[in-house]
Design brief:
This protein is α/β, with parallel strands linked by helices and 191 residues long. The protein is built from five helices and eight strands. The protein has helices spanning 18-23, 46-58, 116-125, 140-151, 177-190, and strands spanning 2-8, 29-30, 33-40, 62-68, 76-77, 80-82, 109-111, 158-164. It has a six-stranded mixed beta sheet with strand order 2-3-1-4-8-5. Helix 2 packs across helix 4 and helix 3 (116-125) packs across helix 5. It is globular, with a radius of gyration of 15 Å. The termini are close together. The structure holds pyroglutamic acid (PCA). Pyroglutamic acid binds at residues 8, 11, 17, 19, 42, 67-69, 137, 139-141.
C-alpha cells in the first residue's frame, strides 16, 4: 500500500508546524506500507495543488494530510470536510476568503474515507490522547481536505485528515514531538 502523507509549513506567526515536524520524522516504510512525505504550503487552493501534483506522480492508495490545531489537547482525526472557506487570518499568500464555497457546485460536505475510529483506537492503545473531530475548521486545512475528497471521490483513493496539538515550545495545550510521531505511526498502521 502506498500512502502519501503531508504536513503544513508554519503559519499564523509560528516558527514551526508540528504537523510537518512529525511527518518528516516518520520512517519511509511501515510493514507493507510505503510512505511518501510532502511539506505543503498554507494557502487556499495551493495546498491542494501541491498534494494533487504529488498524487499524480506517486498514485497513492491513501492520502493523509496532517495539520496543526492550536488549542486542541489531543490528536484529532477529522470525520468531515465542509464546502466553506471562512478565514479569520490571511493565509501565507495573503488571501483571506470569507463566507465562500471551496468549490462552487460542490456537495455541502464529504465524509472521510479512512477508518477514523480504528485509527483513534490505535492511538489510545499507545496511551496517547486522541478523539474524533467533526470539524476541520473553515481555513486551509478544511480547504485541502474538502478538495481532495471531491477530487478523488469514486476513484478508490482514500483521503483523510488529522489535526495535531502544538509542540511544547509553541504553548499549551501541547504534545511532545515524539508522541505526535508515535500517534501518526499508530494511525498509519491501523489503515
Ligand atoms: N493548520 C491550519 C492550516 C495549516 C495548519 O497546519 C488549519 O487548521 O486550517
Amino acid at each position: 500500500m502506498k500512502i502519501l502523507i503531508t504536513g503544513f509549513q508554519p503559519f499564523g506567526g509560528q516558527r514551526v508546524n508540528p504537523a510537518w515536524e512529525a511527518v518528516r520524522k516518520l520512517p519511509d516504510v511501515l510493514g507493507d506500507k510505503v510512505l511518501w512525505k510532502l511539506e505543503i504550503p498554507v494557502t487556499f487552493g495551493g495546498a491542494f495543488d501541491a498534494v494533487e501534483a504529488k498524487a499524480e506522480e506517486v498514485d497513492p492508495d491513501v492520502i493523509l494530510c496532517v495539520g496543526q490545531a492550536g488549542g486542541r489537547d489531543a490528536v484529532t482525526p477529522e470525520r468531515i470536510a465542509v464546502n466553506l472557506q471562512d478565514a479569520s487570518i490571511p493565509d501565507n499568500a495573503g488571501n483571506q476568503p470569507v463566507d465562500l464555497p471551496v468549490i462552487a457546485d460542490g456537495a455541502n460536505a464529504y465524509f472521510t474515507s479512512l477508518p477514523v475510529k480504528a485509527m483513534a483506537a490505535a492511538v489510545r492503545a499507545q496511551g496517547l490522547p486522541c478523539r474524533l473531530s467533526c470539524t476541520a475548521g473553515t481555513y486551509v486545512c478544511n480547504d485541502v481536505f474538502y478538495r481532495l475528497l471531491h477530487r478523488y471521490r469514486d476513484t478508490g483513493k482514500r483521503v483523510g485528515f488529522v489535526h495535531v496539538p502544538f509542540l511544547p515550545e509553541q504553548g499549551s495545550p501541547n504534545l511532545p514531538l515524539n508522541s505526535i510521531v508515535r500517534a501518526l505511526q499508530a494511525m498509519l498502521e491501523a489503515i
